[in-house]
Amino acid sequence: AAGRDSLQRGSSDSEAENEAKGKLLSKKPAWVDEDDEAEENVDMTHRYRKDFMKSDAEKILTKKKLKRRLEEQFQRAMGGVPAWADLENRKKSKTTASDSDSDEDNDLLCRTGNFISNSESLPRGILKMRTCLPANQERFADGKLVTVQFHPSAQVVMTAGHDRSVSLFQVDGIRNPRIQSIYLESFPIYKACFSVDGEQVIATGTHHKMFFVYDMMSGSIIPIQKVRGVEERFLRNFEVSPDGSFMLLTGTSGYLHLLSMKTKELISTMKVNGRCTASAFTPDSSKIYSYSKEGEVFIWDVRSRKCLHKFEDEGSLEGKCIAVSKNNQYVACGSASGVVNLYTTDVCLKENHPKPVKAIMNLVTSATCVTFNPTTEILAVASRETDEAVKLVHIPSYTVFSNFPVFRRKQIYLAQSMDFSPRSGFFSVANNKGKALLFRLKHYSDF
């Protein structure tokens, strides 16, 4: 009898489970709130909402109208409906994508979240990748493209070049639709960079002492004519601190100017021996590594602006570029000889003549750009002085991936700038032909 009871109970349990599954599959709303349907008025004079008023007559709007107004504002800032919000377009692009991986990629671009912790470590040797259409396919730059950078939080990439324009593109790996472009008259761009919150783009010129701040939320372009206390003929190279507090301008004669990112005013000036060619913040924004033309690296404390330590880059005749990995484990120093020395940060802070864990000898002309991917598994090194001079180095084996670049067909040309997307799903290289080449790194399942 007890056995029969348990059987009956078991069957009733499974029926209940099936019923629950059926309910889940139908995906009906759990409840309907009648208040949602009610036409309710919103006070537009509130300080958070008064910017959305078009006239004084709109002191009160219905919820529907306010929703429409917010959508308009968003579309104006984004230059139309983004690809991820346009369902019709997404369906079309899915059907037109002939690549067998495209469905998987579309699926990847539909979700967010950090999948890195679940993925195994990146294998060495061959890097699984797919060449996509260039990121700026809908608007190639006229001439040299000096910057390519992925947005810190959205699926957007920014390009800037000598043609005086800054452009934003939605990254879908298929069409990469253009969001918007701005044109800075008589201002060939030397470098452009997103602010950490992704709401601004800072752009410096090739021969100007002023720079521009493009506010994407309001759509306004703000010229910063002069920074008080900064006596420089040209302002070109700069870095933005990872915490979004500081902007570091590289001056002449070894001067480094630390600015407040919020007010764009000078906080302090530091000076290295000789001339400074490149700088990089540590991921916690507490220190700055400055590389001098004479091959020395100076480590500064951001808070006190004091030099904590100085070391010589082994065998360097002239410093060119420097990068600190996102996990603060490595420092890469690229020199005019083409050698990129890779150091561990703990050794750099202690020794005056540290030994690199690896000297990367694959470039035969000046190393002009080095950048780590967000997981510190790849170091990209490049030279803008010869065609196809880009190498991807696997960390921690310190070996170069043999299948990149593809030498059968020339496409990279002179690499000017490189960047990885926030979770390494994409890699982009800007070249002197005005293209931002885009590659999908298949090991990483997220953007």
Overall pLDDT: 87
Q: Beta-strand level of the residues, as a percent range?
A: 25-35%
Number of helices: 6
First-to-last CA distance: 59 Å
Mind summarizing the main beta sheet? 4 strands, antiparallel
Helix fraction bin = 10-25%
Q: Which regions are unreliable across 5 or more consecutive residues at pLDDT < 50? A: 114-118
**Structural class label:** alpha+beta
Give the neighbour order of strands across the main sheet: 3-30-29-28
Bulk shape: globular
- Taking all Cα atoms into account, the compactness measure Rg is 26 Å
Number of strands: 30
Description of the structure:
With 447 residues, this protein is of the alpha+beta class. It has six helices and 30 strands. It has helices spanning 2-26, 34-37, 63-78, 87-96, 102-108, 345-350, and strands at 41-43, 60-62, 129-131, 145-150, 156-161, 165-170, 178-183, 189-194, 200-205, 211-215, 220-224, 238-240, 246-250, 255-260, 266-271, 276-281, 287-292, 296-301, 307-312, 319-324, 330-335, 340-344, 358-360, 369-372, 378-382, 390-394, 399-400, 415-420, 426-431, 436-441. The strands form eight sheets. A four-stranded antiparallel beta sheet has the order 3-30-29-28, with no helix packed on it. The longest helix is centred in the first third of the chain and has 25 residues, at 2-26. It starts with a helix and ends in a 6-residue tail after the last strand. Mean pLDDT is 87; it is low at 114-118.
